Amino acid sequence: MVSIRVGNPSHDFVSALRILPSDEHQLVAVAARDLKSAQEFARIHGIPKAYGTYDELVGDPDVEVVYVGVINPHHLATVKLVLSHGKHVLVEKPLTLNEKGSQELMAIARRHNLFLMEALWSRFLPSYDFVMNAIKTGAIGQVYHVDVTFGKAVADEAKLARKALGGGTFMDIGIYTLNVVLMAFGDEQPLEVKAVGHLNQYGVDESVSAVFKYSDGRTANIATSARVNLSCEAHIVGTKGTIKIPFPFWCADKVYLNDVLHEFAFPPAAEVCNFVNSSGLRHEAVEVRRCLTSGRTESEVMPHEASRGLARLMDEIRRQVGVKYDVDD
Amino acid sequence: MVSIRVGNPSHDFVSALRILPSDEHQLVAVAARDLKSAQEFARIHGIPKAYGTYDELVGDPDVEVVYVGVINPHHLATVKLVLSHGKHVLVEKPLTLNEKGSQELMAIARRHNLFLMEALWSRFLPSYDFVMNAIKTGAIGQVYHVDVTFGKAVADEAKLARKALGGGTFMDIGIYTLNVVLMAFGDEQPLEVKAVGHLNQYGVDESVSAVFKYSDGRTANIATSARVNLSCEAHIVGTKGTIKIPFPFWCADKVYLNDVLHEFAFPPAAEVCNFVNSSGLRHEAVEVRRCLTSGRTESEVMPHEASRGLARLMDEIRRQVGVKYDVDD
């Protein structure tokens, strides 16, 4: 498996990958638009080959799977390039900027019988596996309400703030709140979505608050903010109890099931990481291998349909708060 | 001060009142539609006079202030009756079923120079006084987001469930979540309200989730449910920190200001109460006395404008989720 783009998420992902058995996951090559960056990245992580173009990387016959960590607006074209060269692909979230782009990639992957998965790492964590199992076994009865907030005072970070970089707080961190809602309700689409939000000077959202109406009395609330630090907790509430995923819910090492604490320790990553609990990124790499060795082109944990559902709801939320990307036309 | 209707809230209110100095607050009379109930209530609480009609009570020259605890649809007519006899009045929340009715009462009270206040008891608690002071002194910087949930698995309680009784979960408990939002934003009206909800077989709401957009980047989320027990916490989030009002937020004895715990103990009431922390109801009685002895017909803590703002937002939320009372026409 290899990495494209040498930014912070890629660094963390590769650091997490390096703690896995080397006979199962090999870092073959890294590519970046700037060869020097790729070489420096390769040096830090002990990767044999470094390329200054993505074409070189996807042409490398030793490369089997590509991890795409380029900026959001480049996901679509980069993944297309990877798939067109017959390589499997793991794409940093969001899969693309909208449902249309995501569906296009899914169609290509299916046509070429290639593996495609959105790297929404929460889904693959042992803590989330525990949560899903608790819901399925009825430990909290019927789920009626889900409440999740994710807010960090990071409004000035370019990646979030700039529309040209596919920015928007919801796209970057709000997606994790939506993911919990979708997981808790079995990736079902809500009957109704209502959202409000505030845009920054570049026309992308700095905050979004949204409510969801599901069938049979079910509801969900989410809030995201780049202005203030919200609780960053998730509450999944059922007729017989509650699952609380405390801060940092998106990469949880703790889960309260009916007030009983369950812990899920993260091992250290190979290098110092940029984000909290990044060694947990290894679970998505393990999932890619598990799927490929069993001949699957789609993960059951993060199926195409889940990515499509996420993208569809993100499109609707952006529409309601007034965030539009060029590719939406 | 006297009590009308001998239901649970009135019992708790009078039990709380009885721990106040008897030279400041005297229980003169109680009235109920059923004389026997009034007599039994009078016996329990040591009240000298019991009436089987409200007309007798409001005609009693010893009565100065009336506490109205009748069912929601009867607030409007009962308060009108009280005001027409020149008595001051404290009305159990909600003031009336909608903004129109509430404004009507305010106009009558002002015309007669009589005191009128909605007994939304949270507002008068020492814990809420502490919260408001923390916000005003900038202890959490500029408030950007408010998040409150109130859910109890009480869907079958008639008072909540029946439209004829002015039911609806939001009217009964959701009002407390809205109150926190309004208090945190200085009783300002939001620019936008979006709500979803589910109705029961009688056409009133069993759950409501709503989001609010305020000017200058501010947002709020609330959730209420009669189906499941929600966290029942309030989070007021600012640029410099967070105020967390833990369960039971609506009658809080604890407040976390930037993670530091502040406690506000409740004394025992005179009798065993129906609801949690009911001795705190004494603070609204103290506020009535404070206003009357200083010649005020309106409280600064719960001014008419705050009641009007609450009613207006409740009307809009009901409109969006499809709850309509007969008096809305």
UniProtKB/TrEMBL annotation, chains A, B:
A Pfam family that the UniProt record links to this protein: GFO_IDH_MocA_C3
Could you list this entry's UniProt keywords, alphabetically sorted. Answer: Oxidoreductase
**Where does the record place the GFO/IDH/MocA-like oxidoreductase domain?**
133-243
Q: Which reaction does it catalyse?
A: (1R,2R)-1,2-dihydrobenzene-1,2-diol + NADP(+) = catechol + NADPH + H(+); D-xylose + NADP(+) = D-xylono-1,5-lactone + NADPH + H(+)
Q: Name one GO molecular function term.
A: nucleotide binding
Family annotation (InterPro entries): Gfo/Idh/MocA-like_OxRdtase_N (IPR000683), Gfo/Idh/MocA_domain (IPR050984), GFO_IDH_MocA-like_dom (IPR055170), NAD(P)-bd_dom_sf (IPR036291)
Where does the record place the Gfo/Idh/MocA-like oxidoreductase N-terminal domain? 22-117
The EC class name is oxidoreductase
Q: Which residues constitute the signal peptide according to the record?
A: none
Q: What is its EC number?
A: 1.1.1.179, 1.3.1.20
Q: Which family does it belong to?
A: Belongs to the Gfo/Idh/MocA family.
Q: Which PANTHER family match?
A: OXIDOREDUCTASES, TRANS-1,2-DIHYDROBENZENE-1,2-DIOL DEHYDROGENASE
Name of the protein in question? Trans-1,2-dihydrobenzene-1,2-diol dehydrogenase
Organism this protein belongs to: Medioppia subpectinata
